[in-house]
Amino acid sequence: MLHVSWWKTVLIWFAVLLSVLLAVPNLLSDKQLSSFPAWFAQRKVELGLDLQGGSHIMLKIERGDVVRDRLETLVGDISARLRTVNIGYSGLTGTGQKIQLRVNDPAQVQAAINALKPITSANGRPGAALSQGDNGALTIDISDAGINERVSASMTRSLKVIRDRIAQLAVGEPLIRRQGADRVVIQIPGLADPQRLKNLLNQPAQLSFRLIDQSMQVQDAMNGRPPAGSEVLFSEDDPPVGYLVQKQPILSNIDFADAVAVSNTQSNDGNISVKLTPESTSRFAQATAANLGKNVVVVLDDQVISAAALKTAITTGDIDIPGDFTAQGAQDLAIMLKSGPLPATLTTVEERTIEPGLGNETMRSGITACIVAAIFVAALMIGFYGLLGVAATIALVINIIMVLAIMGLFGITLTLPGIAAIVLIIGIALDANVLIYERVREEEKKTHLLVDALRHGFNRAAATVADANLTLLIVAAILFYVSSGAVRGFAATLIAGIFTTFFTACFVTRSLVDAWISHRKPRVLLAGVRSGIFDGANIRFMGIRRYSFTVSAALSVATLLAFAAVGMHLGIDFTGGSIIEVRAKQGVADPTNIQSRLQSVVPGDVQVERLDDRLSAVIRVHAQQGGENAEQSAVTLVRDELGRDYDFSRVEVVGPAVSGEISTTASLAVLAALAAILIYIWLRFEWQFAVGAIVATLHDVILTLGLFVLTGMEFNMTGIAALLTIVGYSLNDTVVVYDRMRENLKRYSQMPLPILIDASINQTLSRTVLTSATTLLALLALYIFGGEVIRSFTFVLLFGVAVGTFSSIYIAAPVLIVFKLRPDKFQAGDENKGQAGGDVQSGKPAV
Questions:
Q1: Whole-angstrom distance, CA of residue 673 vs CA of residue 717
Q2: pTM for this prediction
């Protein structure tokens, strides 16, 4: 027996049963779930927008608007306070975060300072600094802390307005969350019209009724200086018409109790009616009665949308807003008026939109790839391990069920890269079983008793499995911390899979094998096990280390030179810009026609490529000059030009603010992963092992970057995810080899290091080949069946796994010789020091 106690067995299978209950809702429809009892888990795994379609939009509050609003408020406050205490002043101006004025009478300077002291603090905290100059000059500097506090308050208010506006759209369940100090992320699944959503969220919707100032001509005000309390605003006309209007409105947003849009379906136009609050109804009636015959304008976000003369007093409290509105425009303005104005402009700095039909197709491809990957690796395991392979396959199924249960329980979103993570988990899970089974085979050769071999094999392999998976866990955790969206879904899914892999490999598989032994009571390892294909290997890996090192170094140098000379094709995640996938409404996509049409309307470089289905094309618009709004304007131009002939399947827009941050965080992520792994290997082994692991990892990273340079594939955030995954997986294999070297170093301190390393690699060669084969098979299934969107990502992983296997043998191991690893550090009391050769030439040191 494996001596798995009854209570451990109960806990193991209770966890499995609980996972099944948590995962079952994913197989049932909402209608079917409604018939189950209330205690039954009903939380399904949420699908990412790339799998179900929808829009991801990141908005950034314009700090300049907050500064300008604060500046205008303070200027007005200063003027009012000084007039209240009868202090004369001149030159009151504000620029940026600085306000300047001069007190006319120097004797009143101290009184002016006392009057202005309250404005230098807000809520008991300093918001501005007041300083005194010569000849009555005063300066008020608005502090960054004060602006930051107002940005935070504006964000809080903006979140409420955004929620109110989206709630009136009657869309699916939106995700709205604050990110950082000045950004908000909105995700709406199944959204068919992202352009309308952006228009609703980007517009402050500050609406006011103002009287026209007739004290001077508009042109004179534009040429000179408008009267105090008035300003020049322009209409929407082409060319725009200027109006000199009073700054103080007679009605504004706070006076509106409700807004209703009425649409004419035949003419596709609409109008808006607002209902005033009781107090503002009375005030507006008095204002209109007092200004009969005068002209009033309706101003929306500092733009005049209509003008009319007041012919009668308006006393009903119901007002029709004059203007030329479309049916949808009227509906949208009514939504904005009911939800209230935004305190500052929100600019779209990132957009990722996928048409729902495309997401469903991607989902089907991903599920197919997972099923095929499981069949591939299960067939491999059963072919090599017989009934033990069956146990590993059962554990694999349980592993995937547990991953889905954890994702549903913790609200981890399943994205397309997340499906790739599940496929990778399939390979990694069976890797762990290979490590255990190969250790069991070795133990059986020593003890010749299957039960003891299984017990020792499971116990001793558990540490190796933990070591190997911990390196991957480190890089997955770093990737989760620095990424967002679909890539974060990949990292979160991978983290969940690493934990379930260790549990199923070390506990579930052990429990299944224990049940088999209890039932069948075999005396020897199953005859069906055929994994010992390299048992008699005596390959002199270190004999060619100088050649392999030289070739690898030459390839690495060539890659770095190509990287410097040619560079990589960086995606919009790092450079900014737009990617737009369109599908022809009739016939096939014509990239030449698309390019010629867009070059005349979109500034900068535009590239068009037709996809394999010939119906679709991908348009790449390089980063625009002019900031975040310029990127959105470019996409709008593309929509206007191609909208009649093409449907927009996918739109990704990354502004300069986001792309700069992604570049920084991606670089830090790679460096942090390398540093964390260096520290871990150093603590777990010796410093020479740590150096060897880092050299091998750098080798893999450089060659993988070379693949991007050579093929011209786009390098984006998923490329970073692939790179970090390769780092983790490469170290997974390296740790397995290092683990065996450490064991042999403890036993044979007098053995020449190259011979000992060769023996260790030969001893672990079966597991190295099988673990790489299972992962490569799983990734190959994803590459073939996973669809076009994920294919380049999978290709990079395939290359990385192959290169990582090579570097574990030919890079990580020779470094130990270069840095003169000392076997005496590992010397144990029961060493067989005299056996320097023994059976080592066959890859099996004497014991």
A1: 15
A2: 0.79
